[in-house]
Structure prediction request, 229 residues.
Amino acid sequence: AQSVAQPEDQVNVAEGNPLTVKCTYSVSGNPYLFWYVQYPNRGLQFLLKYITGDNLVKGSYGFEAEFNKSQTSFHLKKPSALVSDSALYFCAVRDGGTGFQKLVFGTGTRLLVSP
Amino acid sequence: DGGITQSPKYLFRKEGQNVTLSCEQNLNHDAMYWYRQDPGQGLRLIYYSQIVNDFQKGDIAEGYSVSREKKESFPLTVTSAQKNPTAFYLCASSAIQGDRQPQHFGDGTRLSIL
Prediction:
Protein backbone atom coordinates (compact mmCIF):
# COMPACT_ATOMS: atom_id res chain seq x y z
CA ALA A 1 0.00 0.00 0.00
CA GLN A 2 1.17 3.50 -0.72
CA SER A 3 2.03 5.99 2.00
CA VAL A 4 3.32 9.52 2.42
CA ALA A 5 5.30 11.09 5.24
CA GLN A 6 5.63 14.78 5.93
CA PRO A 7 8.05 14.80 8.84
CA GLU A 8 7.57 18.43 9.87
CA ASP A 9 4.33 19.67 11.37
CA GLN A 10 5.46 23.27 10.87
CA VAL A 11 8.15 25.09 8.94
CA ASN A 12 9.10 28.65 9.84
CA VAL A 13 10.95 30.88 7.39
CA ALA A 14 11.58 34.59 7.03
CA GLU A 15 10.22 36.42 4.01
CA GLY A 16 12.73 36.47 1.18
CA ASN A 17 14.50 33.32 2.34
CA PRO A 18 14.29 30.00 0.49
CA LEU A 19 11.85 27.42 1.81
CA THR A 20 11.67 23.64 1.71
CA VAL A 21 8.77 21.45 2.77
CA LYS A 22 9.73 17.80 2.96
CA CYS A 23 7.87 14.76 1.66
CA THR A 24 8.84 11.10 1.37
CA TYR A 25 6.69 8.40 -0.14
CA SER A 26 6.29 4.67 -0.54
CA VAL A 27 4.59 2.91 -3.46
CA SER A 28 4.98 -0.49 -5.03
CA GLY A 29 5.02 0.79 -8.60
CA ASN A 30 5.83 4.09 -10.25
CA PRO A 31 4.71 7.08 -8.17
CA TYR A 32 2.43 9.86 -9.27
CA LEU A 33 3.21 12.71 -6.85
CA PHE A 34 1.27 15.88 -6.12
CA TRP A 35 1.55 18.97 -3.93
CA TYR A 36 -1.50 20.89 -2.77
CA VAL A 37 -1.93 24.03 -0.68
CA GLN A 38 -4.82 24.81 1.66
CA TYR A 39 -5.75 28.21 3.05
CA PRO A 40 -7.99 28.47 6.15
CA ASN A 41 -11.52 27.15 5.63
CA ARG A 42 -10.85 26.48 1.95
CA GLY A 43 -10.39 23.42 -0.19
CA LEU A 44 -7.08 22.16 -1.52
CA GLN A 45 -5.49 23.91 -4.47
CA PHE A 46 -3.22 22.02 -6.83
CA LEU A 47 0.36 23.31 -7.01
CA LEU A 48 2.33 20.81 -9.09
CA LYS A 49 2.74 17.17 -9.99
CA TYR A 50 5.36 14.64 -11.02
CA ILE A 51 4.31 11.83 -13.32
CA THR A 52 7.40 11.13 -15.40
CA GLY A 53 10.23 12.98 -17.07
CA ASP A 54 12.39 15.73 -15.57
CA ASN A 55 13.03 15.36 -11.88
CA LEU A 56 12.59 19.09 -11.28
CA VAL A 57 8.97 20.10 -11.62
CA LYS A 58 7.81 23.70 -11.73
CA GLY A 59 4.35 24.70 -10.57
CA SER A 60 2.12 27.56 -9.57
CA TYR A 61 3.15 30.67 -7.57
CA GLY A 62 6.88 30.06 -8.09
CA PHE A 63 6.95 26.70 -6.35
CA GLU A 64 8.97 23.77 -7.59
CA ALA A 65 9.65 20.24 -6.40
CA GLU A 66 12.43 17.77 -6.95
CA PHE A 67 11.70 14.10 -7.46
CA ASN A 68 14.44 11.86 -6.04
CA LYS A 69 13.80 8.21 -6.76
CA SER A 70 16.71 6.84 -4.73
CA GLN A 71 15.62 8.75 -1.63
CA THR A 72 11.91 8.34 -2.41
CA SER A 73 11.43 12.04 -1.79
CA PHE A 74 9.51 14.87 -3.40
CA HIS A 75 10.39 18.03 -1.49
CA LEU A 76 8.61 21.29 -2.24
CA LYS A 77 10.81 24.36 -2.67
CA LYS A 78 10.63 28.05 -3.38
CA PRO A 79 13.66 30.33 -3.80
CA SER A 80 12.15 33.34 -2.02
CA ALA A 81 9.25 32.99 0.41
CA LEU A 82 6.37 35.45 0.66
CA VAL A 83 4.18 36.12 3.70
CA SER A 84 1.23 35.13 1.52
CA ASP A 85 2.74 31.63 1.14
CA SER A 86 1.76 30.93 4.76
CA ALA A 87 -0.68 28.01 4.55
CA LEU A 88 -1.04 24.25 5.01
CA TYR A 89 0.76 22.13 2.44
CA PHE A 90 -0.09 18.54 1.55
CA CYS A 91 1.95 16.01 -0.37
CA ALA A 92 0.02 13.16 -2.00
CA VAL A 93 0.92 10.02 -3.91
CA ARG A 94 -0.83 7.40 -5.93
CA ASP A 95 0.55 4.28 -7.51
CA GLY A 96 0.79 4.60 -11.28
CA GLY A 97 -0.53 1.08 -11.84
CA THR A 98 -3.77 0.09 -13.54
CA GLY A 99 -7.13 -0.06 -11.86
CA PHE A 100 -8.23 2.16 -9.03
CA GLN A 101 -5.35 3.47 -7.00
CA LYS A 102 -6.41 5.92 -4.35
CA LEU A 103 -4.63 9.18 -3.72
CA VAL A 104 -2.94 9.05 -0.32
CA PHE A 105 -2.24 12.31 1.49
CA GLY A 106 0.36 13.21 4.06
CA THR A 107 -0.68 14.79 7.33
CA GLY A 108 0.24 18.26 6.12
CA THR A 109 2.94 20.81 6.96
CA ARG A 110 2.04 24.28 8.13
CA LEU A 111 4.28 26.91 6.56
CA LEU A 112 4.65 30.17 8.45
CA VAL A 113 6.47 32.98 6.67
CA SER A 114 7.34 35.91 8.92
CA PRO A 115 7.76 39.47 7.60
CA ASP B 1 -15.90 29.34 -14.37
CA GLY B 2 -15.80 25.60 -13.91
CA GLY B 3 -15.47 24.22 -10.46
CA ILE B 4 -16.90 22.30 -7.54
CA THR B 5 -19.56 23.77 -5.29
CA GLN B 6 -20.13 22.39 -1.82
CA SER B 7 -23.03 23.46 0.36
CA PRO B 8 -23.68 24.41 3.01
CA LYS B 9 -20.41 25.88 4.23
CA TYR B 10 -21.36 25.20 7.86
CA LEU B 11 -23.73 22.52 9.13
CA PHE B 12 -24.88 21.51 12.58
CA ARG B 13 -26.22 18.08 13.45
CA LYS B 14 -28.44 17.14 16.31
CA GLU B 15 -28.24 13.81 18.11
CA GLY B 16 -29.81 11.02 16.05
CA GLN B 17 -30.15 13.14 12.94
CA ASN B 18 -29.01 12.39 9.40
CA VAL B 19 -27.59 15.29 7.43
CA THR B 20 -26.73 15.58 3.75
CA LEU B 21 -23.82 17.50 2.28
CA SER B 22 -24.13 18.67 -1.29
CA CYS B 23 -21.42 18.50 -3.94
CA GLU B 24 -21.94 19.69 -7.51
CA GLN B 25 -19.35 19.97 -10.27
CA ASN B 26 -19.50 21.52 -13.74
CA LEU B 27 -16.11 20.26 -14.89
CA ASN B 28 -17.61 17.29 -16.75
CA HIS B 29 -15.50 14.98 -14.61
CA ASP B 30 -16.35 11.30 -14.39
CA ALA B 31 -14.82 10.58 -10.99
CA MET B 32 -15.87 12.15 -7.69
CA TYR B 33 -14.62 11.69 -4.15
CA TRP B 34 -15.49 12.53 -0.55
CA TYR B 35 -12.77 13.12 2.02
CA ARG B 36 -12.84 13.82 5.72
CA GLN B 37 -10.23 16.17 7.18
CA ASP B 38 -9.37 16.16 10.88
CA PRO B 39 -6.59 18.25 12.42
CA GLY B 40 -3.22 16.53 12.14
CA GLN B 41 -4.60 13.58 10.18
CA GLY B 42 -4.57 14.74 6.60
CA LEU B 43 -7.38 13.67 4.31
CA ARG B 44 -9.09 10.31 4.56
CA LEU B 45 -11.19 8.84 1.75
CA ILE B 46 -14.84 8.15 2.62
CA TYR B 47 -16.39 7.17 -0.73
CA TYR B 48 -15.58 7.51 -4.39
CA SER B 49 -17.46 7.14 -7.63
CA GLN B 50 -15.94 6.44 -11.01
CA ILE B 51 -19.14 6.65 -13.02
CA VAL B 52 -22.81 7.47 -12.65
CA ASN B 53 -24.82 4.94 -10.62
CA ASP B 54 -21.68 3.35 -9.22
CA PHE B 55 -19.70 4.11 -6.07
CA GLN B 56 -17.23 2.36 -3.79
CA LYS B 57 -16.32 2.54 -0.12
CA GLY B 58 -13.11 4.22 0.87
CA ASP B 59 -11.15 3.81 4.08
CA ILE B 60 -13.71 5.22 6.53
CA ALA B 61 -17.14 4.60 4.97
CA GLU B 62 -18.91 3.43 8.16
CA GLY B 63 -21.67 5.83 9.17
CA TYR B 64 -21.79 7.50 5.75
CA SER B 65 -23.77 6.95 2.55
CA VAL B 66 -23.65 8.43 -0.96
CA SER B 67 -25.50 8.39 -4.25
CA ARG B 68 -24.46 9.18 -7.80
CA GLU B 69 -27.61 9.61 -9.87
CA LYS B 70 -26.18 12.38 -12.04
CA LYS B 71 -22.68 12.97 -13.33
CA GLU B 72 -22.56 16.43 -11.78
CA SER B 73 -23.74 15.51 -8.30
CA PHE B 74 -22.35 13.34 -5.49
CA PRO B 75 -24.15 14.04 -2.18
CA LEU B 76 -22.87 12.62 1.09
CA THR B 77 -25.18 11.69 3.94
CA VAL B 78 -23.75 11.56 7.44
CA THR B 79 -25.99 9.18 9.32
CA SER B 80 -26.71 8.91 13.03
CA ALA B 81 -24.46 5.83 13.04
CA GLN B 82 -21.45 8.09 12.62
CA LYS B 83 -20.64 8.79 16.25
CA ASN B 84 -17.91 11.34 15.69
CA PRO B 85 -19.01 13.39 12.69
CA THR B 86 -17.37 16.68 13.63
CA ALA B 87 -14.89 17.37 10.83
CA PHE B 88 -14.23 19.31 7.65
CA TYR B 89 -15.62 17.46 4.63
CA LEU B 90 -14.11 17.93 1.19
CA CYS B 91 -15.51 16.87 -2.15
CA ALA B 92 -13.22 16.41 -5.14
CA SER B 93 -13.41 15.36 -8.75
CA SER B 94 -11.05 14.25 -11.48
CA ALA B 95 -11.44 13.78 -15.21
CA ILE B 96 -11.01 10.03 -15.19
CA GLN B 97 -10.41 7.89 -12.17
CA GLY B 98 -6.74 7.02 -12.07
CA ASP B 99 -5.88 9.67 -14.59
CA ARG B 100 -2.65 11.56 -14.29
CA GLN B 101 -4.53 14.81 -13.81
CA PRO B 102 -4.92 16.21 -10.32
CA GLN B 103 -8.10 16.15 -8.31
CA HIS B 104 -10.03 19.42 -8.02
CA PHE B 105 -11.51 20.30 -4.65
CA GLY B 106 -14.50 22.23 -3.39
CA ASP B 107 -14.24 24.65 -0.47
CA GLY B 108 -15.59 22.19 2.03
CA THR B 109 -18.39 21.85 4.57
CA ARG B 110 -17.65 22.12 8.26
CA LEU B 111 -19.92 19.83 10.26
CA SER B 112 -20.39 20.25 13.99
CA ILE B 113 -22.53 18.62 16.66
CA LEU B 114 -25.15 20.65 18.49
Summary: The mean pLDDT of chain A is 94. Chain A touches chain B through 24 residues (CB under 8 Å).
